[in-house]
């Protein structure tokens, strides 16, 4: 291999393909540490297919990896230098996104929240949303609160996860959605949701309007065209095809294997003392006036205390003790340390932490004493019925796991840190107590610190160590659980950002009321890569009617615990963020005292959910959003083959170039593994040792296109000046047959390699142009000239190219250049035609809306005339005629306004098209990479 090969490969690695072409995202795909499935590549290509696009809606069904799809687009934009990227997510998904970007795409990210924002502002940073070289992640509520700051930032890309939360943006009272739409107007967006439409077609209108206001007209014209008795649903689907991409689970079975969920229920009854404690706390919480709870957060803090009460006597004892002390100090509220997810729950509920001043000190003191007594009583209870039930449940669950062939590992979830400590002590004496791993928000316990230190020592000097204690601690605990652990006891922190496919038993010791939190928990194990059916264990208090109905709803109506993939899209969409359902359940617990009241309240909630989940709108959803399975499968089959071909070539070429540039500074164990023996003079400061490709497992440094060594090697190869030299290609020693070159065995000639670049629409496309001729003036086909660079060669002396050969090469390069420019022009014409169709439809929609208003006045005129005719008295007739004339005058004004508005719409359409044409004005450049004399031995 020669430096000519290296320079050629370097430019092919940097070559930019057409938007929507697999080669466009080759570097992003090659640099990602994920098992790519064709539907994910297909979705990413859809998002990148047009430089004129204002964004897309990626609406694959639950569990198909929309995060990976968005990650590919983010990685591509990052590689292009477009690094002002914002990700808006529910607060409980912030860390998960942060970790996915770091582990799978090697992208730096920064979570921006109230505390970090204030610290940045105080330190003099005027734009906290624009960190140096980091993707910004924030929650919905924080984005709404900082809408002005977000609007000032010229984002290159905005990704909105769980975007169905914004689908009612068309409603005037939707403050959050309206604020985000206004703040992000004009910014390119990717909206992620498995449920783009749940109860009304207007939800689709709302989501699409967040992306592009020119796909549909206004709200009135949308109702007129797509929601009336003659609704044009086929036209609606055609419009959506340009902005919405959806793949179903049944369409990807060939690529994504699924396992099932099996539910086990362990029932228990509270002991006498536990029942007394429950009744005392429940009675306390039901009082009209409580000094310990802030009035503005009464519902939320009451829910928190009920969850701690249901968790364990240890959890509620600590909370009551703390509340008593706070109340004596004149403070109100449940401190966040009693429930690890308290701050996130505050955020989800759309509330801010508040603390009321205690108005009646004497009453507060009495209440504090009462809380202290309840806390002492709770602390005196050392045995919990649910804890004893856990021991028997684990025995049954592990027997079930045996039948299913899965490992003896269990992931136990609790919502309380104190309950976590209780369960740890309880399980130490069990048959599974020798290897328990704890997972929570801080992991400061001695065992976790020891595991962390051992992990650091084991992986010192490798890319496994990120330098972030939080990230490395999480990975150390997961690795210990995988390799040696039998039980992992996790708080809600374990429901985010960790993948535990090696475990197939999930125990909900405390069951959240938010179905999406439950789905998130089970999804740690029941996800892509799980080889066994997953067992899900829940606990049920026999004596609590409300607990039983909550479990019934979650199991039967939401289908969370059994089936192939848990909760359906329809269910998750119907409940929105899950917070509304959580609020409703909390209200029932607080409001209903007697079994009959509880039954009636849950019956009403279930009936309401049934209407939302099982309505007629589901048939319309299928008709509009789902495409023929065979058509999708054929497309995915082609994408799969194309992706593997592009990826294999890209990765192979990167390693070939690296081998040429490193020379004797590295030794190679295989095509995708090498050891760096010495630091090259031209490379940045990087560690020596083993390196491996992103999809190669081991402890070596991850070698990817964005790695500093790879970037330095490619830059060195591309910038090298090469004088024309003689290259002898050894075809006989090449593995495999190259028919295109065999006819040139023993012959020689001249070749040139040039790069053609076309910039348009804010994006570029490159072509590597090949031209070669023989000594006797015969033109070599361009594909044969390209294949030369797959063959090893020996470099000889520099040469001078004769004028006759130069003329022929120039002629052939010009022909190849015209071919490339024609391809670019055809593509740009197609993109512009698509935009013109969209704007034509938009203009027609607005005109239809205006004409509808006139038809409505025509109807009112006809009604008024009938009323005038039917009037009995002269006075009534005169009044009716006056009303007719007023309506006719209004109609005439509307008609005049219609013509003016139609002219205005046509002018706006023309201006928009002119702007699109200007964006697609191409800037063409060409440069020679090198010329050489070739000889095929």
Question: How would you explain this protein's 3D organization?
Answer:
- This protein has about 950 residues and is of the alpha/beta class.
- It has four domains: about 220 residues, Tandem AAA-ATPase domain (Rossmann fold, 3-Layer(aba) Sandwich); about 180 residues, Rossmann fold (3-Layer(aba) Sandwich), CATH 3.40.50; about 70 residues, no CATH class; about 220 residues, no CATH class.
- The protein has 33 helices and 23 strands.
- The longest helix is centred in the C-terminal third of the chain and has 68 residues.
- The mean pLDDT is about 85.
Q: What is the CA-CA span between the terminal residues?
A: 15 Å
Helix-and-strand structural type = alpha/beta
CATH class of the largest domain: Alpha Beta
Q: Give the C-alpha Rg.
A: 33 Å
Give the overall form. Answer: globular
Percent strand: 5-15%
Low-confidence stretches: none
CATH architecture label of the largest domain: 3-Layer(aba) Sandwich
Number of domains: 4
> How do the strands line up in the largest sheet?
3-4-2-5-6-1-7
Task: Give the % helix.
Answer: 40-55%
Provide the CATH topology of the largest domain: Rossmann fold
In CATH terms, the superfamily of the largest domain is Tandem AAA-ATPase domain
Strand count, sense and barrel status of the largest sheet are: 7 strands, parallel
Instruction: State the oligomer.
Output: single chain
- What would the average pLDDT be, to the nearest integer? 86
Number of H/I helices: 33
- Total strands: 23
């Amino acid at each position: 291999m020669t430096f000519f090969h290296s320079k050629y490969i370097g430019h092919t690695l940097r070559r930019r393909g057409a938007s929507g072409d697999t080669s466009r995202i080759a570097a992003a795909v090659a640099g990602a540490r994920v098992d790519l499935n064709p539907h994910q590549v297909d979705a990413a290509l859809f998002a990148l297919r047009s430089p004129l696009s204002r964004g897309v809606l990626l609406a694959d069904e639950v569990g198909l990896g929309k995060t990976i799809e968005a990650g590919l687009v983010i990685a591509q934009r990052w590689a292009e230098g477009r690094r002002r990227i914002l990700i808006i997510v529910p607060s409980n998904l912030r860390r998960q996104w942060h970790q996915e970007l770091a582990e799978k795409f090697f992208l730096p990210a920064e979570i921006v929240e109230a505390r970090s924002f204030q610290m940045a502002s105080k330190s003099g940073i005027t734009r906290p949303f624009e960190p140096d070289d980091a993707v910004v992640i924030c929650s919905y509520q924080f984005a709404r609160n900082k809408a002005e700051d977000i609007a000032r930032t010229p984002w290159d890309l905005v990704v909105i996860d769980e975007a169905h939360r914004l689908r009612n943006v068309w409603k005037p009272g939707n403050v959050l959605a309206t604020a985000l739409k206004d703040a992000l107007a004009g910014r390119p967006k990717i909206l992620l949701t498995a449920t783009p439409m749940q109860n009304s077609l207007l939800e689709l209108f709302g989501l699409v309007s967040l992306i592009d206001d020119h796909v549909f007209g206004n709200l009135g014209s949308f109702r007129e065209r797509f929601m009336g008795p003659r609704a044009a649903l086929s036209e609606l689907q055609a419009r959506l095809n340009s902005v919405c991409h959806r793949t179903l689970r049944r369409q990807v079975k060939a690529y994504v294997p699924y396992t099932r969920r099996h539910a086990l229920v362990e029932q228990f009854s509270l002991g006498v003392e536990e029942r007394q404690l429950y009744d005392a706390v429940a009675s306390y919480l039901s009082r009209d006036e409580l000094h310990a709870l802030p009035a503005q957060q009464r519902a939320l803090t009451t829910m928190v205390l009920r969850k701690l009460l249901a968790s364990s006597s240890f959890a509620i004892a600590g909370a009551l003790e703390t509340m008593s002390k706070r109340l004596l100090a004149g403070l109100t509220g449940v401190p966040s340390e009693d429930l690890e997810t308290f701050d996130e729950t505050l955020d989800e509920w759309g509330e801010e932490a508040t603390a009321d001043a205690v108005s009646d000190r004497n009453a507060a003191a009495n209440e504090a004493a009462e809380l202290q007594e309840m806390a002492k009583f709770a602390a005196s209870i050392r045995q919990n019925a649910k804890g004893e039930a856990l021991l028997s449940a684990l025995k049954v669950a592990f027997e079930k796991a045996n039948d299913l062939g899965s490992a003896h590992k269990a992931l136990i979830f609790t919502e309380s840190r104190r309950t976590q400590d209780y369960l740890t002590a309880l399980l130490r004496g069990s048959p599974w107590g020798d290897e328990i791993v704890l997972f929570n928000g801080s992991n400061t316990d001695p065992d976790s610190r020891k595991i962390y230190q051992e992990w650091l020592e084991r992986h010192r000097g490798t890319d496994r160590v990120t330098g972030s204690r939080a990230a490395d601690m999480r990975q150390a605990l997961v690795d210990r659980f995988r390799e040696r652990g039998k039980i992992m006891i996790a708080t809600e922190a374990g429901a985010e950002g960790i993948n535990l496919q090696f475990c197939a038993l999930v125990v909900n010791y405390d069951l959240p009321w938010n179905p999406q939190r439950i789905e998130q928990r089970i999804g740690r194990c029941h996800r892509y890569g799980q080889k066994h059916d997953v067992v899900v264990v829940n606990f049920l208090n026999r004596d609590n009617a409300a607990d039983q109905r909550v479990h019934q709803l979650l199991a039967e109506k939401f289908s969370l615990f059994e089936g192939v993939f848990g909760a359906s899209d329809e269910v998750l969409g119907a409940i929105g963020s899950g917070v509304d359902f959580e609020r409703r359940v909390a209200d029932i617990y607080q409001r209903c005292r007697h079994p009959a009241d509880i039954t009636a309240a849950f019956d009403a909630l279930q009936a309401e959910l049934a209407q939302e989940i099982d309505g007629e709108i589901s048939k319309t959803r299928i008709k509009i959003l789902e495409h023929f399975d065979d058509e999708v499968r054929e497309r995915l089959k082609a994408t799969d083959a194309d992706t593997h071909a592009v990826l294999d070539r890209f990765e192979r070429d990167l390693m070939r170039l690296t081998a040429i540039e490193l020379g004797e500074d590295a030794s190679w164990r295989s095509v995708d593994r090498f050891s760096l023996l010495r630091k090259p003079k031209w490379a940045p400061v990087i560690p020596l040792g083993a390196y491996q490709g992103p999809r190669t497992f081991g402890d070596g440094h991850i070698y990817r296109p964005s790695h500093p060594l790879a970037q330095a090697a490619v830059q060195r190869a591309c910038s090298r000046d090469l004088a024309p030299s003689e290259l002898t290609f050894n075809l006989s020693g090449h593995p495999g047959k190259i028919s295109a070159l065999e006819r040139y065995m023993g012959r020689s000639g001249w070749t040139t390699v040039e790069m053609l670049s076309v910039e348009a629409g804010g994006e570029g496309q490159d072509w590597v142009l090949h031209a070669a001729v023989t000594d006797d003036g015969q033109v070599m086909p361009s594909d044969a000239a390209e294949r030369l660079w797959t063959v090893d060669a020996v470099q000889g002396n520099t040469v001078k190219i004769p004028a006759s050969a130069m003329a022929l090469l120039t002629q052939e390069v010009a022909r190849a250049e015209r071919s490339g420019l024609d391809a670019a022009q055809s593509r740009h014409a197609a993109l512009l035609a698509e935009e013109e169709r969209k704007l034509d439809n938009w203009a027609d929609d607005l005109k239809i809306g205006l004409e509808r208003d006139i038809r409505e006045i025509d109807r009112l005129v006809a009604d008024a005339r009938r009323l005038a005719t039917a009037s009995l008295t002269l006075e009534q007739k005169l009044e009716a005629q006056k009303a007719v004339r007023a309506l006719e005058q209004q109609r005439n004004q509307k008609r005049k306004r219609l013509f003016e508005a139609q002219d205005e719409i046509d002018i706006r359409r023309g201006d928009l098209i002119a702007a699109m044409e200007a964006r697609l004005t191409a800037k063409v450049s060409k440069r020679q990479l090198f010329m050489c004399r070739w000889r095929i031995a």
